[in-house]
Amino acid sequence: MTEIKISPSLLSADWLKIGLEADKIYDIGADMIHCDVIDGIFAPNITFGMPMISALKRCSKLPLDVHLMIVEPERYIDKFIAAGSDTIAFHPEASKDPHGVLASIRAAGIKAGIAINPNVAVEIAREFIDEIDYILLMGVFPGFGGQKFIPYVMDKISLAKELIGDKSIYIELDGGVTVDNITRMKELGLDVAVAGNAVLAADNPKEAVKLLKKQ
Ligand code: DX5
Ligand code: ZN
């Protein structure tokens, strides 16, 4: 079984030194930097936008795993691509033109994903199955790091796995990942775990990444 990838979320980072935090995420052996872009409308928080992605691009040695929790992402998708995103997932129900957004991401040669909230059926991915590189399953409702994993989302990993079949689409889970639930997630087919709190709020983030990968 290939090693699971870890994508720490900046939501749990020290924003006073975000550049150093990006270096730290590289140094602790993580695989990507999960950039939670939230507009205060799609989810009840406001984080950052394209300027932060461009700044991170200048310093990060890891791919930028961008998660758009914004309404009508089609308005900004070209700017997030130009800013240097390496993968972009968005919530299709927030878009008036989800297929167009996926086409823009793919045309730029970067990885396209759709994000599925806990209360949204995995089945919605069927419509996009030939246009995506990954499915981002939300383990919590969007907005904040440090929330508890919603147990019924575990079954959605198997459903996503079934839907994907032998297509080269990976499954990423975002929210509430800990050393206690990641083993089961891996058994069910998870490929990438977003881990904010479990890594960046840990006493020893490097150890935390090692533990998450080893489970
Ligand atoms: C919610 C965010 C969180 C975060 C992960 O909008 O997307 O899911 O990145 O945070 P933890 O790992 O702390 O639950
Ligand atoms: Zn996220």
Descriptive tags:
alpha/beta; TIM Barrel; 215 residues; 32% helix; 8 strands; globular; binds zinc ion; eight-stranded parallel beta sheet; 8 helices; single chain; binds D-xylitol-5-phosphate
Q: Decide which structural class fits the backbone.
A: alpha/beta
Number of strands: 8
**What is the oligomer described by this structure?**
single chain
Task: Give the tally of structural domains.
Answer: 1
Order of strands, widest sheet: 1-8-7-6-5-4-3-2
The CATH topology annotation reads as: TIM Barrel
- How would you characterize the largest beta sheet? 8 strands, parallel
The whole-number mean of residue pLDDT values reads 97
Order of helices and strands: EHEHEHEHEEHEHEHH
Bound molecules: D-xylitol-5-phosphate, zinc ion
Please write the CATH class name. Answer: Alpha Beta
What's the overall geometry?
globular
Unreliable runs, pLDDT <50, ≥5 residues?
none
Alpha carbon gyration radius: 16 Å
Query: What is the strand content?
Result: 15-25%
CATH hierarchy: architecture: Alpha-Beta Barrel
Proportion in helices: 25-40%
